[in-house]
Amino acid sequence: MKNLFLLLGMLGISSPLAADEVRVAVATNFIEVMEQLGKNFAEQSGHQVRLSSGATGKLYAQIKNGAPFDVFLAADDERPTLLEEEGVAVTGSRFTYALGMLVLWSPDVGLIDDDLQVLKRQHFRFLSIANPRTAPYGRAAQQVLETLGHWAAVQPRLVRGENIGQAYQYVYSQNAQLGFVAKSQVFKDGVFADGSYWPVPEDVHDPIVQQAVLLKEGTAARDLLEYIRSPEAARVIESYGYGVVVR
């Protein structure tokens, strides 16, 4: 048996007895991507990945209150930085894993045009955004509307999702006619979902820098973070409509 484990190690294959579970708190916008990355990582390492998703602000509060996570993938860089400064996260483990992109999207093919007449003339009943107080994508959406000069005018028509996932659901279910959503929610393998859309220029809001941080030391958790930084993972992340940092 000892020789078997030695052989597995030489081949770079984890033995079942060495397998562990990594508990990951992940921002709602990244859950689908992380499901794919977690599956790939599990197949290659033998470790299992358990995901819990939610708004970045709420996940941060849970972690501060002792929630048993090993890794945090936030939708911003603010909360991972705070956790590191507060001594909750492992110092020096923080890095940028994705750059978020915002899209104004509607299932209605003819609703959104390049001139954004839909916003200027308010040809809609409700506009969905994530809550700017707790969700980085919501904060970016507010900045876009302020930059375009529409923030005050759309207030009576705004619906705010708890997170970017709920903001997307409001539009997808047509409870809102359009909304600012994550590009990753309406884009995959180079193709946008049906409907009409306006890719938001990156210079009209602060960058959506999404960072990861290690919360508890562990070989499996560190291995997962290393995998997320790999070229293979970067290709998966880009295929879902995110930018990545070239290393």
Automatic annotation (TrEMBL):
GO terms for biological process: molybdate ion transport. Molybdate binds at T56, I164. InterPro entries: AvModA-like_subst-bd, ModA, ModA/WtpA. SUPFAM superfamilies: Periplasmic binding protein-like II. PANTHER family: MOLYBDATE-BINDING PERIPLASMIC PROTEIN, TUNGSTATE_MOLYBDATE_CHROMATE-BINDING PROTEIN MODA. Belongs to the bacterial solute-binding protein ModA family. This is Molybdate ABC transporter substrate-binding protein. The lineage of its organism: Bacteria, Pseudomonadati, Pseudomonadota, Gammaproteobacteria, Aeromonadales.
